[in-house]
Every structure is written in structure tokens, then in C-alpha cells.
Amino acid sequence: MELTGTAGGMLSGMVALSRFDFDFDPRFRVPLALAGITPSTTAAYLRDGCFEVRFGAWSLQTPTGNIAQAELIGPFRWYRSVGVRLSLHDRGVTFGTTARRGACLGFREPVSAVAPFGLLPHPNATVTLREPEALMLALRDLDVPLVRGASTG
Q1: In DSSP terms, which residues pair with 16 in a beta bridge?
Q2: Is the model's pLDDT at 106 over the cut of 60?
Q3: Tens-digit pLDDT profile for residues 41-52
Q4: Is 64:46 a contact under the CB 8 Å cutoff?
Q5: Where are the domains of the chain?
Q6: pLDDT, position 105
């Protein structure tokens, strides 16, 4: 899962890149694809001191130093977790492709992702990755505190 590449095409500097693929539930592949959300348009990345999510037309980017904590959560109700979701409870954003499980990252400073021009910043983001544990381990290696997850139904 760990890849290396050159920074800006420079041979002298190597940059670590971690890519985490989303876990697509077959039941939701067609409706997600209609919204431009496919395995080729989605991924989460840790690279160059930054956490980034690409999810079809949507994206989120923040420095890894802005990640206050991370936890494994799930399972979820599908109607609360599939697609791009905004929580009315806490303004958190979900980038979801399955109802099985995911990783929820809390931010020190809210980040923009869903609303244009950063009008509605999000204090946390949930991503339903194929291997959310791998993201958790990578974040732990960056000294991000991990908290015990819960079923969120």
C-alpha cells in the first residue's frame, strides 16, 4: 500500500504516498456511478503532510497536523452513509460507498468539502474505505490520537 514517487519530478527528493481505496458495496455501485462516484474517481491519500479525499466531483484536503483524532466506526444505516452526506447534527461530512464500516477523522479546525467557497466547514469526515484499519495505522504513525470506535447505526 505504500508507494514512493518523486516530488515535483525532482530526482533528489522522494515523497511517500499512501493511497486508500473506497469499499464499494455492489448494491450501490450504479447509483453512485450516476453521481460520478466510481472506484477510479475515489480515494483517500496521505502525502506530503496532507490528508486528501477525492470522491467524484467532491474533495477534501487538510494538513495532517489538523487531524485531532481518528476512530473506526460502523456499521451504519445505508441511507446515512452512502454517497456524499452532511450531518445535520454536527455538520460532519461522509464520503460513503458502503454501510459496513469506515474511519472518522476529527479536525482541529473545520475544513470545507461539500458547500462551495467553504461556506459550511466540517469538524469531521467519515470515509468508508476498503481497509480503514490501514488508514488508522498510518495516522497513528503520524501521532494522531486514535479513539475507540462505536457502532453508529
Answers
A1: 4
A2: yes
A3: 999 999 999 999
A4: yes
A5: 20-147
A6: 98
